[in-house]
Amino acid sequence: MTTTETPAKTPFENFLSEHGEEAWSATMTTLLRSIHDVDKNAAQIWFYFFPLSLFEAFAHADDPELLAQRLLMRGNCQLKDQIDTSHTFLYGHRYWPEVKSAVTNHATSFNLAEARSLSDQILSVAQEVARKSKVDPSLVVGITAVAFMTMQQAGLGAFQAPGKMLLDKKHARKSPDQVLRERAKDDSQGLLGFLKTIDKKWTVTYDENDEAAKYRMNNIQDLAWGAANDQSRNWREIDPRRSEGPIPVECRSASCGTCWVGILGGVEKLSDVAAREGKKIKEFGYIDTAEPKPLIRLACQAQTHGAVSIVIPPWNAVFGKYLRSLKQSLPEGFESKTPVVNKQDPVASNDHCN
Ligand code: FES
Question: Which residues line ligand 1 (CB under 6 A)?
Fold first, then answer.
């Protein structure tokens, strides 16, 4: 085999590649019932952060560079580059070495003739990990689903390569209930706090693995304005998209899609999605829902009246319209597998996900 040849897919990889976005959506709906509350939001957020349809668009593009420019892609959306780190915000991340090993074994011993549904296979591997790790299966179902999708996007070869796991020791000792209690807790406003109205202050946690990853903001202020006051680190050095504070921002008016975040805890303390945020977030491609308080928000639009825990994705782009046009060009009932990149209309150059 020459270095430019792609290795043949294993039977398990072929099985996974038969599952498109809709099949995965049905699988996750089934699995959510078996995922512990501590990871229910986190698992859904992870699947929004790494959409299969976008991965497929890049995998089948004639010119991925051009597609990245066209979609205004900035940052890194490729799971193959972050196999062991994309999911640090899941509680189940602490069991990643065991999950990775079990999913690799499952993939290499897979027999298509005996294959069960995708959700049954994920549950079965999660139960095996739970038994060996002596934990409740509900704590590892979400991270096992993440591992299956990571293998689908990155391939078995890259998936099973040794990697470095990031986990804060203090956070690793916390129980699921403790994490849930911390997410639900609001800041004390002092002895006369009940008299305060607009001058209340709230804490936003933007990385639960890092004790210092928090900023304070004013009551009914949007998440991005609050973040801009946090000058505790050299944000551009950490991520060139971060021009000020931990949350990447550009327009502050729901026009660019840079500031999208996932809401791990406190989703009910945010303002309802207003008409413009709802319309634009769908155009960007991040989420398509009429829910007033979804798990994905634009930080420049979502105002808070309480403490919240958020996750910042490693990339941003504008791809909703593009993926919808690909889907509409396919016959009914046929999920996108071979999208074609239109070589017209390139836009400004950006960092992209390759
Ligand atoms: S900063 Fe542009 S959409 Fe929020």
Answer: 249-252, 254-259, 298, 300
Nearest one of 245, 313, 305, 238 to 281, comparing CA atoms: 313
Nearest to 353 by CA among 62, 57, 74, 72: 74
Percentages (nearest 5) of helix, strand, coil residues in the chain: 45, 10, 45
What residue owns the CA closest to ligand 1's atom 3? 254
Looking at residue 269, what DSSP letter applies?
G
Residue 304 forms beta bridges with which residues? 221, 270
Q: What would the 3-class secondary structure string for 162-197 be?
A: CCCCCCCHHHHCCCHHHHHHHHHCCCCCCCCHHHCC
Furthest-apart CA atoms within the chain: distance in Å: 73
pLDDT at residue 4, rounded to an integer: 53
pLDDT digits over 233-259, tens only? 999 999 999 999 999 999 999 999 999
Paired tokens of 320: 């909703």
Query: Which of the listed residues 74, 243, 255, 281 should we mutate to test ligand 1's pocket, taking the one with most ligand atoms within 8 A of CB?
Result: 255
pTM for this one?
0.91
- As a whole number of angstroms, the distance between CA 286 and CA 251 comes to 17
Give the Cα separation of 28 and 13 in Å (integer).
Answer: 19
